[in-house]
Amino acid sequence: MNNSFGRLWLRSQLPLLSGYALLTGLVALLCYLYRLPLIVLIDLLRFSLPLLIIWLIATILLAKHRQALLARQLPQADFQPHSPVEGRLATMLTKSQRSSRQILQAVRQKQREQNDHRDLFAHEIKNHLAILRAQAEEQPQVPSKQVRAAVQQANYYLDLLLSGERLAMTSHDFNFQWLPLAKLAAAIVQENAALFINKQLVPEISIPASLRLLTDQKWLHFCINQLLTNAIKYAKPGSVIKLVWQTDRLTICDTGLPISSTDQPRIFESGFTGQNGHQTTKSTGMGLYFVKQVADQLNFNVRVFSPNNHSTVAELVFPPDSIS
């Protein structure tokens, strides 16, 4: 019997022991006042004390058994409360166990999704590196255009992989500052120059040079880059991709495959590629999912829709107090 269990058990039996001592003292006082034979008190102790000891031993054994049941976390199956307090504690323990199981299941599911995402992105990176290797084996010199395109795609999936890992963390190191959106957009277009050249696309940027946004530069860069990469991926060769600022939103518009009405409600789901993704066979279905996660945490909205059958529009809508 450990000290904690002994103290708690003794505290629970204190009313009984106090009552027994009080009763014994009362009988002793009556014997003294009424000059009763001492044998009365002795017989009382002789017959009641063994019963008290047996009772105390039984309560110790029962308490240890009930403690073992609780240690096995079986309050509903085998543990039957003997008091209102025990009943309340058993209910609280049951709720706590249920909540813990749900949290554990959610964590395991999240870990499985992270592993699936990691495997998917690693596979895509390996594919593009394998393409470069095959080209290098087939010819002594690989055109720089092909190298830049393959490296750009590998960097794209590596960025997705790292961003997914950062988003999975419980806290993020956000650094809010006033950013010149036109400068950031131009830098992102320059980073994707190889993809623009490869598909003979023309970027058009219409963003006021004086416009400033209060947000995190790294994550805004990630969002714009994902939306622009999607536009490049689905745009028709030789077409124009526009980045336009309108009142409170950055709009990225292409003339590629429109989003079907059946796919529209699910475009931000994890791993959803839709009809366009199946047609191009280059979509992982994770870019828009990550963009939505970032937008929710940075307090701006993201919309992707097809206003007609000839284009797709992506919008980042910012709150008024973050625009200068």
UniProtKB/TrEMBL annotation:
Location, primary (coarse class): membrane
Protein name as annotated: histidine kinase
GO terms under biological process: cellular response to phosphate starvation
Domain of life, per lineage: Bacteria
Catalytic activity, as annotated: ATP + protein L-histidine = ADP + protein N-phospho-L-histidine
Source species of the chain: Limosilactobacillus antri DSM 16041
Record-level GO cellular component terms: plasma membrane
Transmembrane segment boundaries: 20-38, 44-63
EC nos: 2.7.13.3
PANTHER family xrefs: HISTIDINE KINASE, PHOSPHATE REGULON SENSOR PROTEIN PHOR
